[in-house]
User: What shape does this take?
Amino acid sequence: MNILHICANPKPTEESVSKQLAAAFFAKLIELKPDAELVNVNLYDEKPPFYSYELFRRCWYPVFDENYEPTKVEEMAMNYAGKQAEMFNAADVIVLTMPMWNFSVPAIMKAWMDQVIAPGLTFSISKEDGIKPLHKVKSVVLLVASGSIYKEGDARDALTSQVRSAFGFIGIDDIEIVWAEGQNPLFFDNSEENKAMAIDAASEIAEDIAEMDFSESEAE
Ligand SMILES: Cc1cc2nc3c(=O)[nH]c(=O)nc-3n(C[C@H](O)[C@H](O)[C@H](O)COP(=O)(O)O)c2cc1C
Assistant: This one.
């Protein structure tokens, strides 16, 4: 089992609830699957560039123009995206660790998605075949913490809908969410209890992932 962990949180673990969820998730997963291959990317150490015109040309021009030849600058614009997409395509499971910021994913996480969710990298696109995955990712595990509490389908929550839509677009519909809500102790007396429940849930999701069968993709 190959796991790619993308973490978008600049805080140390002791100050970050979402990172504590990740710690619980990986402790359980490694206990149950000691052979699991884990690749960790902390986006604050490997910062994605913002999307550029050169990257747009390099990724999208071949879709519409079979004679397109990238310039050197356009080739170079794909350095970060290409490396990250390689890790993405080698993964069976992707774990995303992040806080909710301004009702959505942190900008650095969105910048990473803009880099890797691109034609020729993680999916192919054509009029005949539509969108086809170039990856073998079966599940995305989303580990998130927020100050407030959001009911399911709450219009203010642009985070889970963005993650579901972006990964659904490239054929990943299994999105397992562990959400430590109500983490602002000024407004919620039970923030510690909410955190403990989410940590237990992270451990349970790790048990489910450990039971998944990836033998088909390993044989490839
Ligand atoms: C810049 C910023 C924006 C935030 N925006 C929201 C928000 O829109 N909704 C919310 O419920 N909490 C918001 N919070 C609170 C965090 O989501 C909360 O502190 C959470 O525990 C952060 O996760 P972490 O502990 O893993 O860092 C925000 C915090 C910061 C620093």
Observations:
- The first strand starts at residue 2 and ends at 7.
- The CA atoms of residues 104 and 158 lie 5 Å apart.
- The pocket of flavin mononucleotide is lined by residues 9, 11, 16-19, 99-103, 145-148, 183 (CB under 6 Å).
- The domain at 2-215 is CATH 3.40.50.360 (Rossmann fold).
